[in-house]
Amino acid sequence: MTAPTPLPHAPRDHPPVRMGKVGLLLANLGTPDGTDYRSMRRYLNEFLSDRRVIDYSPWLWQPLLQGVILSKRPFTSGAAYRSIWNEEADESPLATITKAQTAAMAERMRARFGDRVQVEYAMRYGNPSTVSVVERMKAEGCDRIVFFPLYPQYAGATTATANDQFFRALMKLKWQPAARTVPAYADDARYVDALARSVERAYAAMDGEPDILVCSYHGVPKRYLMEGDPYHCQCRKTTRLLRERLGWDESRITTTFQSRFGPEEWLQPYTVEEVARLAERGKKRIAVIAPAFSADCIETLEEINEEIRESFEHAGGERFDYIPCLNDDAAHMDALAEIAVENMAGWIAPDAAVARAAE
Fold first, then answer.
1. How buried is residue 127: exposed, middle or buried, by Cβ count under 10 Å (0-12/13-18/19+)?
2. Spans of all domains in the chain
3. Fold annotation for 189-323
4. What is the pTM for the complete model shown?
5. Cα–Cα distance measured from residue 141 to residue 155, given in angstroms and rounded to the nearest whole number
6. Alpha-carbon distance 24 to 106, whole Å?
7. Closest C-alpha to 182, from 223, 232, 147, 156
């Protein structure tokens, strides 16, 4: 923790203030505190009450959410989480991985800046909350904060709502730190290279090559695209850049969207249906990767590796390989660290003494 710093030109009896550090705050979607009914209901209520996620009129949506959905869904979601829960740490895999990513990022920041950058993480839903972490970072001397939503592709329901919560946290402070938000990095060459390396490693370890690689992105209602959300276009671009980096032709890779919710049309093709069609068309061996997720979570470990796998195999598919998210992979963390440093430009310079010591 930074020692209290006397304010210049302040009277001697002025209370000391901690200041002088740059904060780097990594943000992910969130996780329930447990798999029991109350923990799941609390988490789902916060998540599904977010107008960025479900933008129906609260007069229509909230009675349905509170009276029907939250009386049943905590049980089914709890069961899904239990199937992937990290029992040793008593937390979800997303929490475990996000902690590892934060530690890896902190190590990289120390190598450049010594103790002048404080790295933390927060969740948009659940704990640790964005508000609580921002308040703590400010109290511990971070007078500048770079807020980094860990979503490669921008969407109103991910990047924007994370930023919204960050701004709400700032609204609660009497003395706000200077703030920056990191934009989406869907076409960043370093991120694409890390993705490509993960595919190359996975393929090299397989006994034979898949017929096709399915890039499965989290879905959003198609209406969001028509209203100006760039998510669909950025997902398509990531797939194209990944294909080009791998040196493949278009027949070896495809883009799909998963996690459909509600009655309206979402971005298509739907992953769960497309993998069945691929099997029926003779693609008996496929690999699936989830480029929209920076860390493995319920949507990848349970939905892809269980529900989507089952759809493929039921339709006659013979070999299904899931390629894990980048998580705290070294190339991934190197890429994110470089992006973070670029967004600190003008706020902090590398520590020459630290750099010399590392040589």
1. middle
2. 21-34+85-184+331-358, 189-323
3. Rossmann fold (3.40.50)
4. 0.92
5. 31
6. 9
7. 147
Reported as a pLDDT band with limits 50, 70 and 90, residue 14 is low
Cβ atoms of 196 and 246 closer than 8 Å: yes
Both structure tokens of 279? 């099997």
Q: Which helix (H) or strand (E) holds 179?
A: strand 178-181
End-to-end CA distance of the chain, in Å? Answer: 27
The answer to whether the Cα torsion of 178, 343, 153, 81 is positive or negative is negative
CA distance 121 to 31: 13
The answer to whether domain 21-34+85-184+331-358 and domain 189-323 are alike in fold is: yes
**Average pLDDT taken over every residue of the chain:** 94
Rounded to an integer, what distance in angstroms lies between the CA atom of residue 192 and that of residue 359? 29
| Structure letter (DSSP) for residue 175 | S
Q: Which residues pair with 322 in a beta bridge?
A: 288
Sheet holding 285-289, edge to edge: 253-258, 212-218, 285-289, 319-323
Calculate what percentage of the chain has a pLDDT beyond 70: 92
Q: Which amino acid does the sequence have at 315?
A: A
CA pair distance 323, 289, nearest whole angstrom: 5
Written as six digits, the tokens of 259 are 């996690």
Architecture in CATH for domain 21-34+85-184+331-358: 3-Layer(aba) Sandwich (3.40)
- The gap from C-alpha 4 to its chain's centroid, in whole angstroms, comes to 34
